[in-house]
Specification:
Elements: E1 8-12, H1 19-30, E2 33-36, H2 38-46, E3 52-53, H3 54-58, H4 73-80, H5 86-94, E4 102-105, H6 110-115, H7 121-126, H8 131-141, E5 147-149, H9 155-165, H10 170-198, E6 224-229, E7 241-245, E8 260-261, H11 269-287, E9 293-299, E10 302-309, H12 312-322, H13 324-327, E11 330-334, H14 340-347, H15 349-354, E12 364-369, H16 374-381, E13 394-397, E14 411-415, E15 418-422, E16 435-436, H17 444-458, E17 465-469, E18 472-477, H18 483-496, E19 507-510, H19 518-526, E20 530-533, H20 540-550, E21 553-556
Parallel strand pairs: 1-2, 1-4, 2-3, 4-5, 11-12, 12-13, 19-20, 20-21
Antiparallel strand pairs: 6-7, 8-13, 9-10, 9-11, 14-15, 16-21, 17-18, 17-19
Helix pairs in contact: 1-9, 8-10, 14-16, 18-19
Length: 564
């Protein structure tokens, strides 16, 4: 029968943070015998802590370059024996096995090892821990009698409970057991994901049929840890949090959950959702080389302003003037670092451009950039009589935005009872597939605008229509049930925001084909001179004929970009 006291503890850790102090307390305050292996034993002995080597208990030396150390009945029977089972205890006594009451183990750093671009397959395999997960799982199964610690961050609380009560209560033992199983589960997923990817990304499995399904695995391994708890979800009555990959990956692109938060206010659930939309758009504009600098304002997941250009201030100005009313209280993403000079421009947006453009005020909820200079952060976050919003603005530094996208990261959407999973939409300016289907070809200026409009449209909620000119979004129709209504809305917004005079000569993009020519007719009537769309409708010929009669150029890309 167990009295819950800790008499023997097996400690074998890779991360030795705080482990010597923990072991010393066990020995000095509770007289615990410490069992250990290899590097951990040497570390403890160097700190003057008495240690019994596992090989002294098993009668076998560590072998196979350390691959076999603890895999022995003298260890695992001591962990797994049910202290309340007379038969188990009799068996231990018969074989001279003493119970082990605590297991402190953390695993080889497989995830961080394979995250190194220089890691070879052989190095990765050597970092697959075998004994560690076995010990954790055995101790976690028998947690009523064995305290299992899989994370050094739990050591202080374990000591605190031992000091206060002389033992560890069953509820906390169960929490520690759950944490151990979660750790081994995440570890196994990391290994299986690495092996699958190293076998060849996109290789079809035995149960797949067709090239598309072969790009998705039979089992989806998502290893996520909570990055931040939000004040609430989309609405105050919902709980919310942001999760990110449990381990860094190879050459990961800039992303919101990896951002450095430079402000006192952490981003909310909605901030992160809109921030991701803003960052995704700006990154794609950079990848496509649509302009040296890009800026975008996002409101409710759609761009209300976006522009590219050779001058960062001009790109920002034109992005803001796309819709200065909607920009207020939104998310701003810039592709360039925020210097003090850039910060001064943005902080004075309302007085410089907003008032004259008919805006009532200006503020930002979130401001995303590769980096923020220290002087810029001080300027933004120091309130003045006319400029108080900066102290509450969330500043997110995401690092360089020019890293290539990760094709292995799945695009997941939660639905009740499961997930919708697809590969990411990484098709951008696939111009080899584009076809000019009208008699008139786009001019050079129109072609540049069509590329820009196509990418902005790709990042707009379907049904989507974007109207652009000279690297600037003039108006968009997003999330409408009717494509023709999206055309109406894009034109209406362009006129309401003072761009009506620029519609003549502007271009338009649609994320899917036009079922009938009524949408293109509205665009042409507004002054649009070039249109880009996927094509593929049964009445494409009528749309092309309409454009030819109006002298409008049209490109069909062959690629649809629905975004729900």
């Amino acid at each position: 029968m167990s009295d819950g006291k800790i008499r023997r503890a097996l400690i074998a850790v890779y991360d030795k943070t705080g482990i010597a102090g923990f072991a010393r307390t066990l020995v000095d305050e509770s007289g615990v015998e410490i069992l250990s292996t290899g590097g951990t034993a040497a570390h403890l002995r160097q700190a003057g802590i008495p240690v019994t080597l596992v090989e002294e208990v098993t009668g076998f030396p560590e072998m196979l370059d350390g691959r076999v150390k603890t895999l022995h009945p003298m260890i695992h029977a001591g962990i797994l024996a049910d202290r309340d089972n007379a038969g188990h205890m009799s068996t231990l006594e018969k074989h001279g096995i003493r119970p082990i009451d605590m297991v402190v183990v953390n695993l080889y750093p497989f995830e961080t090892t394979v995250a190194d671009p220089g890691c070879t397959f052989e190095q990765a395999v050597e970092m697959i821990d075998i004994g560690g997960p076995c010990l954790l799982r055995a101790a976690a199964k028998n947690h009523r009698h064995v305290v299992v610690v899989s994370d050094v961050r739990s050591l202080p609380e374990v000591l605190d409970r031992l000091r206060r009560t002389g033992g560890v209560d069953e509820a906390f033992r169960r929490q520690l057991a759950a944490a151990a199983f979660e750790r081994t589960e995440a570890y196994d997923r990391a290994v299986s994901t690495y092996l699958r990817q190293s076998a060849g990304a996109g290789a079809a499995s035995a149960t797949d049929s067709g090239a598309i399904s072969g790009l998705l695995p039979d089992f989806l391994n998502l290893q996520l840890c909570r990055w931040q708890t939000a004040r609430y979800g989309e609405n105050p009555h919902q709980a919310g949090a942001v999760y990110r990959p449990a381990a860094a990956g190879r050459a990961r692109e800039a992303a919101i959950p990896r951002a450095r938060v430079l402000s006192s206010q952490p981003p909310s659930f909605n901030n992160c959702a809109d921030g991701d939309a803003a960052l995704s758009l700006v990154k794609e504009l950079l990848w496509s080389r649509s302009g040296r600098h890009a800026a975008a304002f996002i409101k409710h997941a759609n761009a209300c302003g976006c522009a590219v250009g050779d001058d960062p201030v001009d790109a920002y100005r034109r992005a803001y003037l796309g819709d200065p009313v909607a920009a207020a209280g939104g998310v701003l993403c810039m592709s360039f670092p925020v210097t003090r000079a850039i910060a001064d421009v943005v902080m004075n947006t309302f007085g410089t451009w907003g008032r004259a453009a008919g805006a009532a005020f200006f503020k930002l909820d979130v401001w995303i950039a590769p980096e923020f200079e220290e002087d810029a952060v001080r300027l933004i976050t120091t309130p003045t009589e006319k400029r108080r919003w900066g102290a509450e603005c969330r500043l997110l530094a995401v690092g360089a935005m020019d890293a290539p996208p990760d094709p292995d990261e799945p695009d997941c959407r939660k639905i009740t009872g499961g997930l919708l999973v697809q590969t990411r939409d990484l098709v951008g300016l696939d111009e080899e597939r584009w076809k000019v289907v009208t008699a008139r070809r786009p001019t050079q200026a129109e072609m540049a605008d069509l590329r820009f409009a196509w990418l902005v449209c790709k990042h707009t909620r379907s049904n989507a229509i974007t109207v652009c000119r000279e690297g600037m979004l003039l108006g968009s129709g997003a999330g409408q049930m009717s494509r023709v209504k999206s055309c109406d809305l894009a034109i209406q917004l362009a006129r309401e925001n003072g761009h009506g005079g620029r519609l003549a000569g502007a271009v338009a993009a649609g994320d899917a084909f036009f079922p009938v020519p009524d949408g293109p007719q509205k665009l042409i009537d507004a002054g649009i001179t070039a249109i880009i769309q996927p094509g593929g409708g049964n009445r494409d010929a009528e749309t092309v004929d309409l454009c030819d009669r109006a002298g409008v150029a049209m490109i069909m890309t062959g690629t649809r970009h629905f975004r729900h």
